[in-house]
Fold each of these.
Amino acid sequence: MTTIPILKFGCYWRIGDGSDVKVLTDKWIPNHPTNGVIHPPKEEMQDWYVSELINQDLKEWKNDLIVAKFHKEDADAILRIPLSHRQASDAITWLHTKKGDYSVRSGYHAARKFKKSEEMAETSMGPFGVQVWSKLWKLRVPNKVKVFGWRACLNTLPTRANLVKRKIIHDDVCMLCSRESETGVHALWTCAVAKDV
């Protein structure tokens, strides 16, 4: 097993001035599922850096911009990130220890988690699952659509039901219809309000 995917799996960016961190593709939001933006903003900009969300003179978040551009859950999580009042650079931090320092023991546990998630992805639903993944990865659609489909099949999307399981929020009721728990199946197939949006 190579170490680079494990290190990517186990690290996230601690924000300094935000100039090295991409808003949509990097992991930079602590205590948030996937440590990244869950709900992509309506105006998607690929080369959007976190520094554009920070008032560099005052060393504070551009509150109005963040609230306007991001889903409430992402905006709240971003605005909770403390910013340094000195001229600090962005730094890569290890997720699996309290102080953010890598240790052999935490690296071993991260490698086991990473391997388990890979095996789950490869073997989900047995031989049928392998056929599904094979067809999914061969589709002529953007990679982010393939990844979304893969995550939907594994039930790892940040639905409200999954966020409640991870103790990130307390209420799993669908915000659109307010009738049922927002599971992956509900969000993608059965929510009557979502079908009309």
Amino acid sequence: MHIARWTLEEMAARWLAEDVGRGDVTTGAVIPPDRAGVARIEARAPFVVAGLPIARACFDLISDRQVAWHAFVSDGGEVAGHDALARIEGPLAAILTAERTALNLLGHLSGIATITRRFLKEVQGTTATIVDTRKTTPGMRLLEKAAVHAGGAANHRFGLDDGVLIKDNHVAAVGGVEAAVQRARASVPHGLKVEVEVTTLDQLDAAVAAGADAVLLDNMQPEMVAEAVKRAGGKATLEASGGITLENVRRYAETGVDLISVGALTHSAPNADLALEVEL
């Protein structure tokens, strides 16, 4: 997934301002301003890489583009312990000032890509597609969804404005699944798909009868999802969601469901273990 450089730098500037504040007093006191340096970002354990472009933007901004950046891997690539991800040359003070922000972002996003790749391996050989959700860190949705993409999975809707997903509270507010789907059909722009969340097979039947393009099967056990697949008969895209883990995702995938959405990809991924080392 390509993200424009100006977008990356806009985000990086916000997070650098949070960390640097009025200035890096430690680096300013210890490192001569004309001291050049070389550093490398290296893995401390195996993981899938994501976030190199935003990490680079941090070093570019702090150094006023005076650093030379050479990446040894691209987002989506896999590294082993002690593998180098990138080499950075330029003003040492700038490298050290940007270090923590860049590594925080790179570690978090690589963690997302890594757990995403694990989910994909669990469903290999089935027809199910792993997708993310809107359970993202505020301000980081674009980067976190890019990390999911780097891990090999697909992105669900990015926000409330690019897809209709009728949730349980919407359904309750208008008196039922069929009414909610019909109201959405009557008011959304032509071509915009309508998805509705259901918790029972009767609701599934109502959603399909009302013409929903997709149905989210919320917190259903694999056996119930398998029955839903049979009852829908291919008339709507089916998405399993809720309680999906690495331990049970294969069982869901084998039901024949089309999509499996996993909030844990973005809200529970452990950080990748990496570090920046100055080459003396």
Amino acid sequence: MMTNAAEESGEDRLIARYFKPLAKHPAALGLIDDAAALTPPAGQDLVLKADAIVGGIHFFPDDPPETVAQKALRVNLSDLASKGAVPLGFLLSLALPKSADAGWLERFSQGLGADADRYDCPLLGGDTVRSPDAVMVSIAVVGTLPQGTMVKRSGARPGDRIVVTGTIGDAALGLCLRQDPGAASRWRLQPEDCGHLARRYLVPEPRIAIAEVVRAHASAAMDVSDGLAGDLGKLCRASGVSADVQVARVPLSSGARAAFAAEPDMIERILTGGDDFEVVAAVPPAHLPDMRTATSMAGVALSEIGVVIEGKGAPRFLLHDQPLKFAQRSFSHF
């Protein structure tokens, strides 16, 4: 039965205007039902992940709405990549304050739609509610991979090499610049460095392009969301091992290198600040050459930074052969 437009609620109209165009997968049922109905591809496992971002904590209230949407989706896609999975679709829960007007929603949905197309990850459904204060975006993403092949945190073994994609610390330093604009002068940053650090905080780059590579070569992996030091520690605890990391081998952008050179204490922020959304993995030595070749062909930089060792302690981050001591190894909400 057709619904009379007069009987539609404000939420119905909001969904129809801004989000129905993003629901391109048949499982979404055009967003006219209470749930999606998804059939996994034959011979595939589903990989499920949910992350939320909140205004004032994960992004600034005046950040562009399109980058808020893209960050919300990409932080989830980053987790899929580290598990060796590719996206199938996502659910969106959106809490909006009254300040989020039609213009904000238009830009938010455009940014979300652009990334849904870019990563072939259509909207499957979700919910919209009113927030008393900040915007909150929660996304649950669904990915797929061949049955029994998900790369867990728990597979690292002594002798495996520790590798990481991209560069580390950029987003944390981008946040520093937002909070302390004078840091750019103290660190003697070039304008292009400032722009790079700012972009890395606003919008991460999930490593979906190497999901299959991670699955083929890594014994353990996870994405770096709460800081390299802390997240590598989580991987090691799950695997019942430890690791030694050479800080000089941790890949840094030119902006991060400048910040470290000007203020050596910034190495703690670089290694523990989080929001990198790179992949850290343990790789058997025999697999490392093929993994290097495959990531390079995918256009993703890969750096070997350390080795997995026996033991139960937190990974050691060695600078000039001395272990660094961190006040806090990773970001934590609690």
